[in-house]
Specification:
With 489 residues, this protein is mainly α. It has helices spanning 23-39, 57-70, 93-105, 116-128, 144-152, 199-209, 225-234, 268-274, 278-286, 301-307, 322-334, 338-351, 359-372, 382-390, 402-405, 407-420, 428-442, 447-459, 467-474, 476-487; strands spanning 10-13, 42-45, 109-112, 158-161, 167-172, 176-181, 188-191, 214-218, 244-248, 251-252, 318-319. α7 (225-234) links the parallel β8 and β9. The longest helix has 17 residues, at 23-39. The protein is elongated, with a radius of gyration of 32 Å. The chain binds one RNA strand of 76 nucleotides through α4, β4, β6, β7 and α6.
RNA sequence: GGCCCCGUCGUCUAGCGGCCUAGGACUCUGGCUUCUCAAGUCAGCUACGAGGGUUCGAAUCCCUUCGGGGCUACCA
């Protein structure tokens, strides 16, 4: 099992960007990265874009961007280069062609002239008779005459790998000893009729050529492992040099189906727009299918690297839980310093057009942030929460108007105006002291009653940051103007 | 259908034969705190899928069964 002792660990993340990177991809990338960092090995990033009809440049760039944003830096791959490049499979086509030809030459593979319709008919028959479906070996040992005949018919040929009798065994770091009988691993296609390589060829060739030592990937690839190992053998790799496999459990959607676009917000870009911190996303994702073994849950990226081992990865699938992600994000936000918080918050305020970004605005935002830091779970909530400080034409939300126009409220507002006007040091402590002594002590009102009208008048609604701090931030002039305005309703 | 993987609170997990009348976190419920909303804090609800074994003793080992998932492409 420990065939790689003494060898420097190299882990790769090799997505096929057929869409935005999603939660499942990223969980895999995170484990790959954390394992590389934990072992002091290197992290390789490769793009599997052999299926050019499904992968686009846009998605490739987005994938690079997402990984960078999350802080999952790679040592080899797009942008940073490396001695085993290029790292886009679409730029390595001749390499795969070379190996496919070599396999043919070695008789490990053969040309298969069966048409898709013929193959489908075979599968249909197998299924009908409860047989294991798979290629029936029709073209395994064609004679020269038969080949000539097929060519004359104008048939194209795929390159198909010959699976020998017997079986494949390997050790999965997460699932233990795995054994596959080749009766259920039919000969498989390495290259299309047009010569382009398929995943199974490209992935195995690249992992070998790029000297990958550990393959941590989704469990959907578990049953394709014997085919990959077959390619290693055909390449002449010794068994002790095979990469070690670890098949990660799935991340499932709430509806218990494999996470996909259809059952939830899975694109990392969405979380970024919503205002989740990369560290919160990574922290949460790390807990999906893994735990440090004790009760620790709040982890920094550094701690994650220190604690992460494949042995502690679970073998059962995990369901994605947005609530927990939100809880972690809230905790991480509360742990931010004000300057860090400001850096994260500003783009959201500007994007929402709450502010334009003038120094005065930024200064006010910075003063306001402490009172909302413990009230948000994601940055996208900030604009709505601070809007009352910046709106040009302030208005009370319609459903709250009635609460400032009844006689009791008007009384509170009038009295407050009178108490507030003389205050020269406009601080929340001074405001609170004046209001409490007057409204609570003298008028005998319940705090909740007394301050609701003021809250609505100054912030526009029944829910707001703390009242006195909000009034302080608003400034004396604006606060009094709003209270006066409410009195005219 | 065939092959394969998986199965502890609603969710993520701890547990690797006795420390388990099963621990933690999130959610939920209730209390405290309180100028609203939060945050904080205290308490509570809730789990070893089922059935057989093995054993003095099983969540932990074995078998069966049921359930969930994956693969079964000239997708990855």
């Amino acid at each position: 099992m420990s065939t790689t002792v003494g060898k420097k660990v190299k882990v790769r993340f090799a997505p096929s960007p057929t869409g935005d990177l999603h939660v499942g991809n990223i969980r895999t990338a995170l484990f790959d990265w954390a394992y590389a960092r934990h072992t002091g090995g290197s992290f390789l990033f490769r793009i599997e874009d052999t299926d050019t009809t499904r992968v686009t440049d846009e998605y490739i760039n987005a994938a690079i961007d997402t990984l960078k944003w999350l802080g999952l830096n790679w040592d080899e791959g797009p942008e940073v280069g490396g001695e085993n490049g290029p790292y886009l499979q679409s730029q390595r086509l001749d390499i795969y062609t070379h190996w496919a030809a070599k396999f043919i030459e070695q008789k490990d593979a053969y040309y298969c002239y069966c048409t898709p319709a013929e193959l489908e008919a075979v599968r249909e028959a197998q299924r009908a008779s409860n047989q294991a479906p798979g290629y029936n070996g029709h073209c395994r040992d064609l004679t020269a005459d038969q080949i000539a005949e097929y060519k004359a018919e104008g048939r194209g040929a795929v390159v198909r790998m010959r699976m020998p009798d017997g079986g494949t065994t390997f050790t999965d770091l997460i699932r233990g000893e795995m054994a596959f009988d080749h009766k259920f691993v039919p000969d498989f296609v390495l290259a299309r009729a047009d010569g382009s390589p398929l995943y199974t060829l490209a992935v195995a060739v690249d992992d070998v050529l790029m000297k990958v030592t550990h393959i941590l990937r989704g469990e959907d690839l578990l049953s394709s492992t014997p085919r990959q190992i077959r390619v290693y053998q055909a390449m002449g790799l010794k068994e002790e040099d095979y990469p070690v496999f670890a098949h990660l459990p799935f991340v499932m959607g709430a509806d218990n189906a494999k996470l996909s676009k259809r059952n939830g917000e899975v694109s990392i870009a969405w979380y970024r727009d919503k205002g989740f911190l990369p560290e919160a996303i990574c922290n949460y994702l790390a807990l999906l299918g893994w735990s440090p073994g004790d009760d620790r849950e709040d982890l920094t990226m550094k701690e994650l690297c220190e604690l992460f081992t494949v042995e502690k990865v679970n073998s059962s699938p995990a369901k994605f839980d947005m609530k927990k992600l939100e809880a972690i994000n809230g905790d991480k936000i509360r742990a931010l310093t004000i300057d860090q918080f400001l850096d994260w918050a500003l783009p959201f305020l500007i994007k929402a057009k709450t502010i334009t970004g003038t120094p005065d605005e930024i200064d006010l935002v910075k003063r306001a942030l402490p009172i909302i830091q413990e009230r948000i779970i994601m940055f996208s909530e900030i604009p709505a929460m601070l809007a009352f400080l910046f709106v040009k034409d302030f208005a009370i939300e319609s459903e709250s108007v009635a609460k400032v126009t009844d006689s009791g409220a008007k009384e509170v507002l009038k009295r407050s105006l009178k108490e507030l006007e003389p205050i020269s040091d406009w601080t929340h402590t001074a405001i609170e002291a004046a209001l409490r002594s007057s409204l609570i002590d003298e008028m005998g009102l319940k705090p909740r009653i007394a301050f609701t009208a003021l809250r609505i008048a100054t912030t526009g609604g029944t829910i707001s940051p703390p009242l006195f701090e909000s009034m302080e931030l608003l400034g004396k002039e604006a606060a009094l103007a709003r209270i006066s305005a409410a009195l005219t309703l």
